[in-house]
Structure formats: C-alpha cells, structure tokens
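Dig into this one:

. . .
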Amino acid sequence: MDDFDNLMDIKDKNFLAHQKLKEEKAAAISKLQEKIKIEEKIKAGAELMLQVSETSQKGDTIERSKVEQRIEEANKKINQLMKKIEFFKNLPDHKEEEQPKKPRRIDHKEIQAQVEECLSNLENELLEPVQQLETLNKLIGICRLVGDIRIFTHIKTLLDSLRYTVVSKTKEVRANTFRLLRYLVYDKNIICTMLAFNYDISLIRDNKFEIERTQALKLVRKFIDTPKGVKLIPQSIVYILISVIEQLDDKLRPLCMETLNELAIRNVKLVASCGGIKIIFSAMTEGPMYLTEMNMLTVIYLLDTEKTRNYIKPEVDLEIIISAFIDVYSKNNYSEEQLKLSSKAILALFKSWTGMTYLCFQDKRAINIIVETLRISRSEARKTLLQMIFDLFQLKVPKWFNELIKSKKKSIDINSLIAKKKEEKVNEEKKLHFINHYHSILLLVFKESGLFEALLEVAKDEQPAIAYKAIILIDELLMLCNKLLPVRHTIQLCSLPTLFKNATNFEDEVLRHSANDTLSYFNNIKINKAKSITAQQMDEIEKKDKIILYKINETKGRTQRQIENVKMIMGYNIDETHFRNLITDTQVLTDKDFTKWNWNIIQDLIKGPLMNHKRLEETIKTTKFIKRIISFYRPLSHQFSDILKKKNVKNYVEIGCELITNLVATGEGIRLLSENKFLQQISECLLQLDPFSGITDQNQQIFSKERMEKTLTSEYFTFIGILSKSIDGIKLLEKFKIFHALYCITELRNGREDLIRTIVTSLDYNINSHSRIILSKIMTSTYKHTRLFATDYLQYLLRSGVNDFWDWGIRYLSIQLYDPAIEVSKKAVIILDEACNNSKNLESLVKLSPNLEHLGENANVLLFRFLSSTLGFQYLSDFGFVEKKMDEWFEIKNEDYVMKMELILERAFNTFTSKNRSPDVNDVMEEEALSSEILPHFYGELTKTPQGCSLLERKGHLKHFVDFIRTYSNKNIMSTSKILKLKSVLWAVGHIGSTKNGISFLIEEGIVKNIIQLAENSTILSIKGTCFFVLGLIANTSKGCIKLKECGWETPFLPYNQVVSYCVPRETSKFLKIPKWDFYGSIINNDFLYDINIQKKMYDDTELKILKNIGSLSNHILSNASSKALSKIRIEKPEYFSSVKLLVGVYIIMSTYHYRITARRFIYELFEGVNYTRETVLSIEEYLKSSLNVSPQKSTIENSQTTQSTNDLTVSKLKQEDRNEKTISLVSTCSVDNNNGVVKQVLKPQHVQIGFNLD
C-alpha cells in the first residue's frame, strides 16, 4: 500500500511538472505578445510623427530618414517576435527527456535509505560531532530536495532524535539542528509537535555563539511566518526577545526588535502580557533611528483601533517618550542625546494622523509639556525643539542663517536680520495639498498650547543663534496662519499681545528694546513680502542644469529696480553735451583694451540714452562707439569669449543682452548687425562643431566643452535667444545660417549634451519659428536623457505662459506619449495633466485624441481629465470607457485609491522614508507624492459635467455611499475590510462634494452632518483623519464652506470670494479626542487559572533557597544580593548545581518571568556543570511531567496580588483562548527576607510555554 501511495505521489509530481511547463510556455507567449503590442505602438507613434511633419507649414520638422528607419526596425522586431511565438507554440507540453525518468521508485528507496541511515546515526551516542554535523547536513539537503520529508519518515521520530543534538556541546551541531528544525516547519501542527519535545532554544548566549543564535532566531521567525503559527508562540520566546533587546550592544538586537514588532502587530495580546509594549515604547528613545521608525510604525498601528489600543497603558506608555522633555527641568537626569532621540520619536508621531491625535490625549498634555520645555533656559534643549518644529512644518532654515551666526555677535542685530530677509527671494515651495491641510490643524493645536508665547520667550535668549531662529520661526508660522487658518485665529496670533506688552514696558529697558526690535523685524518683513513678487519661481530646469551662469531676467529688490528706473529716465532725457562726455569717459574711443573701459558708464548709456532710437542711430553713424563694443563681443576676438566665469563678470553679459535688444529695435541697428562680423563669426564657430561643414578645427573650437564650462562662451547662446524674441532678430539668424548650425548641433553624435541643453534653455518660443522646430527635433533625439530634458523644459514653458502652448505645446507633448522610454512618456503625462487645468489646453488634447492604451495605469490621469470636460466625456462614452470604469471603481478601484492616498500621505509626512527612500523610475507614486495637486478620483472628475451627474444619479452609487456612511457613523467597526470600505466611500463622497455640481447632491442627502459626526465620534483614529481630509475637499466650493460653517467647521478667509480646500473645527476638543480605554495587558484580566503546586517535599531547604534567589534575580533591586548568595552556595555546595530536578524548577521560573540577559547568562553559567546526556534529557522530561499538575480547576482572583508562604513555591497555569497547547505561569513568587520572613516583593505572574526554555 505504501509503494502504491508513493507511486501516486510521483505521478502527481510529474503531472505538476507538466502543468508548470504549460504555464511557463503560456507566460512566455504572453510576454512576447506584449512586446509586439509595444512595438506596434512605437510604429504607430513614428507614423504619426511623419503625418505631423507633412502637414506642418514649415515643411519637414523631423528627419524623415531616421523616423522611417525606426519604423523599419519596429517591423523587423515584430517579425522576429512572431517567429518566437510560433516556436513556443510548436513546443510539446511534456519534456521528452523526462519521459524515461518514470522509475522514480529507485530514487525513493535511495532517499528512504539515506533518511533511515541518518536517523540511526542520530541515535548513536558514540557518534563524533563531525559525523553528527554531516548527518544533519545530509538531512537538510534531503529536505531541500524533496520539500516534505514526511514522505520518508514519521516526523515525530525525527524530532525525537533531534532532542539530543540540540543540547550538543558543539555549537556548530546545535546551529545545524536549529537549521534543520526550520526546514521541518511545514504547518502549525509541526510547531505544536516541536513544542512538546522541550527543545532548548539558545538565544541568550554571548556573541561567540552568533551562528547558533542566528539560526535559533530564524527558527522563531519561521514559527511566526507559518500560517496561524503566531498564535502558538510561547511567552518564553517573547521574554527572551525582550532580554536581547534590552542589551543595547547585542548584534541581534535589531533583528529581535523587528521580530517583537511583528509579533505585536500579529498577536498584540501575547506581547502585551509579557510587557513587550513598554519595551517598544522605550526603544524609540534609545535609537538608532531606523529602529525608532520601525517601533513608531508599530505603535501607530496599535493606537489606531480600539481593539489593539487596549493593550497600551493610557497614561503610562506615552510618558516614556516625553520623559526626556520632563527631565530638562532636572539638572541631574538631563541628557541631550536622549532629548534628541525623544524629539525624533515625537516628530514621527506628529507625522501621522493617529500619532498626532494620541499626543492630544489628556487635553494635549504631551504637547503642553513640549511647549513648556521651550521656556526653560537650556540652550541645547531649545535648539533641538526649534529644529523639531521646523521639521514638523517642513520649513527650511534660510541659507543666510549660518552666515549671520558666524559673525559671532553677542546680541541680536535686528537690522542685519531684516537685510538678510529682504535679500531672500520669496519662493514658496510646492507642497501636497493635504500637507497644508494637515498643517492647519497642527497650527491650531500648537496655538492653543501657547507655542507663540513660548517662542517669544525663546527670542530673548542670550545666544543669537537661538534668538534669530525663534524669530524666523515665528515669522514663518505667522505666514502659514494667514494662509491656512480662519481669520479669527489669524487676528489673535498677529496681534502678538505679549510682545506689545513688553514693547510698552518702561520699567525694563532691555526687555522693551528687545520687543521693539522684534516688532520692527516683523513689520519690515511684512512690508518686504507685500512688495516682493509672490508668484512661485518655478525654474526647476535651471536648478538641475548649471550650464547657464546667469539669468538675465533675475528678480531684483524693489529699491534696486526703482533706482534703475530713475537712472534710465534721467539718462533718456540727457542733453547732447553730457551724452558726448559720457561716451568719452568710457575710454572706448581712445583705448582698444577693454579692461581699461569704464563698464559702469557703458551700462548706464546702454540702459539710458541709447534706448532712444534716434540717439542710437546717430551714435552708430557718427562714432565707432557701438562698433568697438560689438567687436569686443566677437568670438574670434578672444576678448569676451575668453573671460572666465566669475562673480564680477555679470555686467558683460547684461550689457551684451541690452545692446542687442536695442540694436534689433532700430533699422540702423539691424543694418549694423547685418554688416558686422559678430553674427558671422558666431555662425562659423558653431559650424566648427559639425564634422561635415569643412571648417572643423578641433584645436581652436570656440564652443568646446571645456570653454563652455569655464568661460563666457556659453553666453553666445543667450545672445541668440535675445535675437529669437523678435521677427527681425529671427531674420538675422536665418541670414547668417545660425539656425542651420543649431540644426546640425542637434544631430551630433559626440555626446555634447551640454550644447543641447543650452540651446533648449536659451531660445525663445513665443514666436512660431525655427525655435519650436529645433525643440521638436531635440524631443525626438536618439538619446533618452536629451528627450527627457526637452520634455521637462516644456513644463517650464507651460508655467511661464509661453504663447499658443495650447496649439504647439500640447501637440509636442502628445507625441512624447509614444516615446519608447517610460520615463519620457510618464513625464509627458504629468505635464499634460498640469496643462489640462486650463480648459483650452484640455480641449486641444481631446481633439488630438491620443491613443493611451500602451501607457496602462499611467494613462488614467489623462483619461480622468477628459472625463471632466463635456467634449472629453462624449469622446470616452463613445467607446464605453465611462460605464466600464465606473463599475470598476465601485467594485475595486475605490479601495485601491485609499491605499494609494495613504501611501502618498505617508511618504509626504514621514520623516524617515521620504529622505532614505531610493528613487524608482517605475514608481508612479513618486511623482504624485511630490505634486501639489490632489490625486484625481473618478467620481470627482465625473461630477464636473452635467452628463456625469446624470450618470451618477442613474447608477445609484451615491445613494449606496450615503447609506453606508450613515450605517457606520454610530457603530464601531472591528473588521479591517469594513474599515477600508468606509474609507473608500468617504473619499468618493468627498471628491463628489469637491465639485460645484456634486456638492448639491451632498447637501440634498444631508450627509455632511454624518461625516462630521463620524469625524468627532469614531474610535478608529485613521477614520477621523480620513474624515478630516474629506471635509477639506467639501470646503473646495462656496456652498460647501457655508454648509461646514453651519456644522461648526471654519475655513480661511480669502479675498475676491476665493475658496480653498482647508477647514478646521471651531472646537478642537470635540474633534481631537480619544475615549478613555481600559488596559487589557494585565494578567488579572484572565478568567481561568490552573494551579500547579511544587510542594516543599520535592526540594530540601537549600534547593528552595536556590529557587527563591533565582526568582529574585528578575528584580533589579534584589538581583545583586541574590547573585552573591547563589555564588556562595555554589562554592559551598557545588553538587546542587548539577541536579536535574533543580534545573527543571529553574527552567519553569525562567520561562515565567522577565530576566535581563546578564541574569539569564549568569543562571546558565551556574548550571554549566549539568552534563546533557541522553539520560539527562529523559530525566528532564520526567521531572517536568511530575512537577506540573495539568488538571485544571477553577479559581478566582479577587486581588491583584497574591502572596505565598515561605514554605511553598506556587506555580499556576493560565488557559489562553487562542492556544491549544498547555501553558503554565507562576501566580506569585515572593522574595523573602531570610531573617524575619517579611515579604519583600510580589512578582507579577506571566505566561510560560511548557517545554520551551530559552537559554
């Protein structure tokens, strides 16, 4: 019968192998078909490029030969792929070579014989350690080969044999035993069987046994990874993990910490009963930072729902994190390093909605402590906390701050601070919309905790660095308040009552002057910001590309611009005599050496009198002044072109640009440029780069890579860009074939990407001319990085408001959608998504009707944009996209959206992940997380058109969403799937309410009140956060703001009836609250206790004394005396520490209580005289059976502590609902004074797994 079963097993395996081969063949064919689709899309895109080129008014805008060559290559690849598909189709479903290998029975017998031989060797007591190691390795090899060794032997027989190798004196044998045990864990039943064999898992040994400890820990992790195995983990394992974690220098500490976190998430009851939650909280303030992040994520998970929150002590565990802030008040306990780690932990809590709500527990007690710590005059503590607040609100310390501090001034020079702040450009960083919304509630919380008053106290600090930083922080936070908070809060904050009170305090002159200086700073900064340009300076291309040294249209201070305007007006109206004198003073007419010219006067002339066209023409005709200056700019004169790039050469570039602008504006100037060698030489120098031009001179190339980097040669492209801004300038560029030279440069194959980037960023694209054609050529370059850069630059052109972008820009971007590089096509999607905020751009894109199937999920962003316009809705409806996608979102995509949004928010908020995460080009979330736009939602885009609203009503989806919210607005949800469903429904309703059409549906249904009720009363903190963001979406319309105001939620005031998607509760106490919970992590909450008594008659007085001292080692107060007592007994009576009976009692106690790893090692050393022979192992089992009474009897515990007489040592067993195996625990072990018998301490009883001792 066994042979028949084995043969059937072999047949089943052969069938599975054949089935696997079929699946692999089908997968290979599927992959090839996908590649064919990609090549067809590339071919279609290339054909489209040819069509666009043929219909262009300028003629061919691309090189036809290259595009046709690409089409031909695509056809070849398609043919090759078709042949491969035919090859796979003709392959047989079965491997012919494997057909003769049917006599599998021979292999079976061989393996059976090997297994039996191995078992026989393991039973042999005389086997050498080397032979034991070989036997274990052979068994491991068999396990890896056959997968399940139970085919060849009974698992209990093998596990019984391993009882002896696990206690071998050789560490390599023990390590390999743990490794073999790991391979034998197939299911939870195997784990139960292993637990019954009382294996000694050695995790507490020192670092000399690292291999053994590592394999033991891997076995524990295998238990956790096995389905339902985590429920079988004994508490003794948790205790030993905790012991290792408490040893900060242990190499396995990070792995044990990770294991404990995983256990806390999957079996929080087990970890809490062992005090593991406290260890997780403590480890957050011990470092290193990557462990703090991991622990914080676990804490946030446990805090989220009431089911897991009950295992965190409501008023105790939080104290562990904020204890470092409290210690600042003490001179003795204060630790700067501890404070930094605590601030990082607090910052990580603040970066999540759950954590922030937890910090508001007990009327914001933790936040109040943090704020009050700022008032203490400890410089290092203030520095740490100020930096934490900067990081929390994602504010950057200005670059000039360090320079100001290096001046080492002993007091605040408020004028220096104002001057530096004025120099700083107003450049608001683009932030994710939801980050700003989250910052609004944070500002409100800190305002109510008195942060601004505390910062004003810090502004009086004696150290300038701290005082400066506090003032800057107040200024930045006030800016955020003006932007994010309702007007009543802004008025309260901006009034700064404490500061004004100090400024009018004539009793304290120092305080009054300090307050006046601070007020002066705020006033000046406010004026400066009002007069500065507040538009975002989105020139990301320049930040990445450092080829261009100067940007001519640089933002200047208002005062400087006013001075220049006055000079220009005065110079424009200057009399002739004064004008002639100025020309003479420049030394241009008297000396040809440009270093002796007065360039300041030259600049004043060009920006003043020579802007008068008539005077410019007269100067050109009557003097050589203009000709001399132009000759200075000729490339081959080696004057301007040889000047090195330095800070003091900026004027040369500005004067050249102004001069060319003035010349192109007049007829005489155009004639001068036409006749001068200036443009001719630029053209010749550019053609030097073309190997087919015939004028190549590698030794004297003006535009060599080295000269472009080090000299002002690169600024000739800036001059070309000035000429490309006007029709007359374009004609000059055409006349001297400069455009022809640029075309040639775009086709170079020598890797001159620096030239391509400079050309792209220098040309002007407002006029429909060669500039746009050159850009289109570069966008279809053979180099991926060049195409990506050119596509990226289109985003800058879009934001800068270039002319007719809806026409040519959208067309260029639609072509990039077919680019073979995923980075380019993805970037094109992102830019088109941004461009579609403009209805004209959206209509232009819809009319082009691009094929987006090859983009997969990346195309959804654009398709949703189509959905938001009437024309696009009709276009998508024609091929059934709308209803199909609507059903997908209703069933699946709504929940996918929740996970995407939570991932984006986590990356945007998280202190650690956002910095350390490596970039991934294929990760769609990366770009979305950096975008300030809300991730588009199907239902939100659908309701932007009347047709979409009609479809939503007809389908009845909104009615379903509303009913679901009402059902769970007053009900606690425990199921994870229900929580996810509720979040998805909330996001869908929020996006519907964010549109002008959709908000009417919400008001009609009256669902806004239910969402607010859910936000205020839900016991699941992440749902409160979701409701908060959803209410922000509803605040996106004026109707929504009015409805929210009626329900007690306020929105910021903006001029001209603008609305913004931010809202905050009028009373934060109603919203930021967590209902008090009962702590379930205590042993007292268990209902059933099973008593096991180890009577006095089992041990003599010395043995009882040893056991009591062993128990006292778990108490750090009594451990020192107990260790000395044990050492004394060992010296006087060493024979007791070789007793197996006593060892069993020690095992029970050690498995019941928490011991530090040093104590465990000490106990292990005490009993190192025990010889673990086969007889010893069997004796241990016998003593365990006789010592433990497994008959349960019901007992009740009335008091939280149970004492015990000095005569008996009581051991009790706990019944756990989630376990099938037997567990034991000590109800109480008392440390008794030997003299008077007074009870010193009652130890807290905990669980223990029978047979699992962790030494």
Q: What stands out?
A: The mean pLDDT is 78.
